[in-house]
Amino acid sequence: LKIQYSTYGGQTYPYTIVTNVTNSGSAHAQRTPYEWIVNDTITSQFMVRIQDMNRTFAYDESDGFSKIMGYFNLTAPVFNQTSIVNAILPIVWEHDGNVTNVKLEYSKDDFNTSKPIYSINDSTENDGAYNWITPDFISDNVKIRVMATNDIDAYNITDNLKIKGALNVSIPANGYRANIESNLPITWNTTGNITQVRIIAY
To answer: Confidence band (pLDDT; 50, 70, 90) for 22?
Structure first.
């Protein structure tokens, strides 16, 4: 048998997967699948044709279109990683396939299309790394998605990460001395949208 594939919806079959593969066994028996390492020929009109080497009129084709698409695997940030508002958070991903640019997005609702999905960068080079300035989006359920700009099916999503605000006490400073029954001003700087705080003396 000869196995070929098309990236043009079966109009032509210019690519050969294998020739002279054995088709042994009884008629109508289930054959062992042929394992093929997919080539970097990205298409949404992928079809396969299997043909008898000795009788070229004896062949069959895929019933419909399949896809060959780019591969992504986000490796950072990792599960439960925490980033502080305004801090730089490296986004890192593995990739394969001829994908020139990617879109980076984030969500706190598992990218549910009925909820807001926020853009990090609508089109950035697919070089496997991007430094993101963490937004004021405090949540324990943030996820990041990397997606091919030209194929919404080619994507990967991180596990949950946490975005938190920060507090920095400015007064009293180290070594400050407070007299009993005196008024002590307590001041602090806030990073992120923190609406209430608890003040504890210890």
So the answer is: confident
